[in-house]
Specification:
about 30% helix, single chain, 8-stranded antiparallel sheet, Alpha-Beta Plaits, Uridine Diphospho-n-acetylenolpyruvylglucosamine Reductase, domain 3, binds 2-acetamido-2-deoxy-beta-D-glucopyranose, alpha+beta, ALO_C, 24 strands
Length: about 600
């Protein structure tokens, strides 16, 4: 068995190397082909990074090289959507529309963003700063201002290697996500998060947002100047415009000790149940100190669950006073930003001349074929393989924050992107039922649902925050990342996997993560007014910034219904510059059709 696994692992690595070589010639992606995670359709075809959830091929791709060109495109097209590098699992949110009146616009092609291409070695970075450089660090204010099209990995690696007197170990974001290959604008727009009971999601951390709005102007919004619009823009799913720049807080990197506890899922469930209990008691007391104390045991915890074996790896972190790190160089293991942008020569004219400056026809996306590995191992062996691949990643020790807090490695991102078509779901449930829900999910896993899993679910915890559409608006939540690695390859629904997703959504009132999978099937069940307390406040921001629905996409989720004294009134009648009027009621929608009854088997089979 062990030797079979070893052979398997070698095969995986061999194919990985081969595929990387093979794809070198494609040059279709705004990521350096020699970066491991190079496989994505954008900016040439409109699909996700594996060629799925594609838009109608008549939809145009916008590749503006300047903000002026971006604004002109927004004015010219009736339907517009800002997109990143294709990490979306929902066509309806992702596609501006379904015909040639529609354009999906990327921000990776701005000359100023691409200028990061020309970076010399790290040591000489400092000389390059000028006003057009896409990342600007202000050490005194402890902020970074970054253009929307810069990828999170690039930003984090840039900060980590920005070694200065005030930041002798470089700089970092207070909390960041596991997956870091999306653009910063996309990550902020969708409430992307790590595991933190202190700092919230990237959307919760953001300090200032510059957005290109429907009337073709740039608007900069801060919480001080306009708390209402800011709360709407923090998680906007692209519905309010295209985020061109954000300002985020940064911290000088410290030494962070990473520890790993291996335990059973049963034991972890008991821990979360205890947190749930003490959180509920603290909530009743209303004492903020007691509440944060109750949540302390899950601070920054990332737990990898192995449903097949019933094992769980709990990774946790502690900030240290020391500045001495394990390992010799901070740069080893950190990816060189230069690599990402350098050798890309495709010039955007591959799909014919532009209709207008910056607007291009799509190249036809090629959906990734099935994974040759899925059938190589059974679920027990995948469980072991998952552990083998994770071991080097989670190794305990003292590292800089960038390295200590786990992120998906470039290599594993590449493996999954190129060879392993999957749909990534994520559900979040409130902390007052986190333990109870996890306990029941654990029972479902034991009763056969584990067979639907090939990659360990990842459990994290995030503090409550105020952005209207944040998953944690209303209070802290437990997030469970769930991946279906079977249905694309086997061309049949993954019913055991669906059982788990439906359980969380139907019985734990879970919210789905914006932009991840599940929306295409469960959107008919979505009723913003009952899922989000500030739903109509968000609607009022839409009335203000996008009154004609340029950014409405094809999603049926964007629906608002206001009533006053029991009668329906136009939403705009209930909106003021500070949000939705308390004289009105944000009412449940009446136009919902096609919501499958709770527990109904959906037979999800993505295109
Ligand atoms: C794409 O849009 C065109 C024009 O609106 C339409 O004729 C065609 O059926 C659409 N194709 C798909 C696959 O929906
Ligand atoms: C997977 O295969 C191994 C033999 O390699 C076997 O021991 C194990 O029971 C199988 N597991 C399942 C779930 O079929
Ligand atoms: C465009 O919209 C923004 C935001 O609503 C507004 O502040 C600005 O005045 C508008 N500009 C024009 C030219 O209409």
């Amino acid at each position: 068995m062990v030797s079979r696994l070893k052979i398997g692992l070698c095969t995986v690595l061999l194919f990985l190397a081969l595929s990387a070589r093979q794809t070198l010639g494609f040059g279709t992606c705004r990521q350096d082909p020699t970066a491991q995670s190079h496989f994505c359709g954008l900016p040439y075809s409109l699909s996700n990074f594996q060629g799925y959830f594609a838009c109608n091929t008549t939809v145009q791709v916008g590749r503006p090289d300047s903000k002026d060109q971006l604004l002109a495109l927004i004015k010219s097209f009736p339907r517009v959507k800002g997109v990143g590098v294709g990490h979306s699992w929902s066509r309806d949110f992702f596609c501006a529309g379904g015909n040639a009146d529609s354009i999906d616009i990327v921000l990776t092609e701005l000359t100023s963003t691409r200028r990061i291409n020309a970076l010399p070695r790290w040591s000489r970075l400092g000389n390059l700063y000028d006003s057009t450089f896409p990342i600007h660090v202000d050490e005194d204010a402890q902020t970074v201002t970054v253009q929307g099209g810069v990828q999170t990995r690039v930003l984090l690696d840039f900060l980590a290697t920005h070694i200065t007197t005030k930041g002798p170990l470089g700089w970092t974001l207070p909390s960041f996500s596991w997956y870091i290959d999306q653009t910063v604008a996309g990550a902020v727009a969708t409430g992307t998060h790590g595991s933190t009971m202190k700092y919230g999601t990237l959307s919760g951390q953001v300090l200032e947002i510059e957005v290109a709005v429907a009337n073709g102007t740039l608007v900069t919004v801060t919480p001080a100047a306009n708390p209402h619009l800011f709360a709407a823009l923090q998680v906007s799913v692209g519905r309010l415009g295209i985020i061109t720049q954000v300002k985020l807080p940064i911290k000088a990197q410290k030494a962070v000790k990473r520890s790993v506890d291996t335990m059973t899922m049963d034991a972890f469930v008991q821990e979360v149940l205890r947190v749930e209990d003490s959180y509920k008691i603290a909530l009743q007391s209303g004492d903020e100190g007691a509440i944060s104390q109750a949540l302390e045991p899950v601070e920054a915890v990332q737990a990898f669950a192995f449903p097949v074996s019933g094992d769980l790896w709990k990774v946790s972190y502690r900030l240290l006073a020391t500045t001495s790190l394990d390992g010799t160089s901070e740069l080893s293991g950190v990816v060189d930003t230069e690599k990402y942008y350098q050798s890309i020569t495709t010039d955007g004219t591959t799909s014919g001349p532009p209709k207008m400056p910056g607007a291009f026809d799509q190249k036809k996306p090629l959906p990734l074929g099935g994974s040759i590995f899925i059938d190589l191992f059974n679920s027990t062996e995948w469980d072991l393989l998952g552990k083998a691949l994770l071991v080097p990643l989670v190794a305990p020790g003292i590292y800089s924050a960038r390295k200590s807090y786990l992120t998906q490695s470039d290599l594993s991102s590449a493996f999954m992107s190129d060879l392993d078509p999957y749909d990534q779901y994520e559900v979040s449930v409130t902390m007052d039922k986190a333990g109870t829900c996890l306990a029941r999910a654990n029972e479902l896993w034991k009763s056969g649902a584990a067979e639907g899993f090939r990659v360990p679910p990842l459990i994290r915890f995030v503090s409550g925050e105020t952005p209207y559409l944040s998953n944690t608006n209303g209070g802290p939540r437990m997030f469970v990342n769930l991946e279906d690695h079977l249905s694309h390859t086997l061309k049949k629904p993954n019913l055991e996997f669906e059982r788990i997703v439906r359980y969380f959504v139907d019985e734990c009132d879970a919210r789905l993560h914006w932009g991840k999978a599940g929306w295409p099937y469960l959107e008919p069940c979505f009723d913003g007014a009952s899922h989000y307390a500030n739903w109509c406040d968000f609607g009022c921001a839409v009335e203000e910034l996008d009154p004609d629905g340029k950014f409405r996409t094809q999603s049926n989720a964007w629906s608002w219904r206001a009533t006053q004294n029991g009668a329906d009134v136009p939403l705009s009648q209930c909106c003021s510059p500070t949000g939705f009027s308390s004289q009105c009621t944000c009412a449940p929608r009446t136009d919902r059709t096609g919501c499958p009854a709770p527990g109904t088997v959906l037979h999800i089979l993505a295109d």
